[in-house]
Write a structure and sequence with these properties.
five-stranded mixed β-sheet, 5 strands
């Protein structure tokens, strides 16, 4: 059954919560194709020791395994924080049609810093921000507050 | 023993040749730390079905496994073709100090299209282009010429 963008973002927030519990920067993502969740992921850079283990890449990897291709035409991705340039280009280059994100990342977000989705780097990706923005930001603030206490 | 940039790029070209033999877009990369090659990679997107399987990411993954961290401070990366935004940000975010590339990619290269290494997205990466540029371009042209014949 088709969900609203907020309902899908709630699933991405569940992934962010898993990252939080694993002491990873709490960002989560899901990939949806034809109203079905085909990939889930959360940031696990510390546990994998890989720079690419961002939530979006983890979700994209799971989705690609599921459908057997790096081309995710017509898929949508939901991510709790505005993606960095690495993840943004992975979204463009896997031919996804739409990106929904929660809170902005003014320091390294590729929408805010580079307007990357309007640079003719590949197929057009529609971008929709500020979905469950407050919750997406709150879990990040909670994580970094905890970290400063330690 | 310390090699010249051209000698290191020759190793990246060896990786590109492996990709060529595997019917993958022939791009190769190596990661060097303290004059030692700690990662090698070539494009294998078709065989892995993963959008992230660019040469640079494969080389970075191998390097990170070798040193047990996603932080590759002071490492250098050599890649036969100017990196895309995904790989460029992986280079920035893994704290590498220098990028050497062979031929430009005017369509989706992140140096040419976004000037990505001068956008204050993280630590400063020095960039040096046109190392064995002709050989790096020639193997790409050969690949796409073969492809059109098929």
């Amino acid at each position: 059954m088709k969900k609203t963008p907020e309902e899908y973002m709630r699933l991405a927030l569940d992934e962010a919560e898993l990252a939080y519990q694993e002491n990873e920067v709490p960002i989560g993502a899901i990939v949806v194709l034809n109203d079905e969740v085909i990939g889930r992921g959360h940031n696990k850079r510390e546990s994998t020791s890989l720079v690419t283990s961002h939530a979006e890449i983890e979700a994209i990897k799971e989705a690609s395994k599921k459908i057997g291709s790096w081309k995710l035409d017509n898929a949508e991705i939901y991510v709790t924080i505005e993606p960095c340039p690495m993840c943004s280009y992975a979204i463009i280059d896997s031919h996804m049609k739409k990106l929904y994100y929660g809170a902005k990342d003014l320091k390294r977000g590729a929408v805010s810093k580079l307007d990357i989705f309007n640079q003719n780097l590949g197929k057009k990706v529609l971008v929709c921000g500020n979905i469950l923005e407050e919750e997406s930001r709150e879990i990040m603030e909670r994580f970094f507050k905890d970290l400063r206490k330690k």
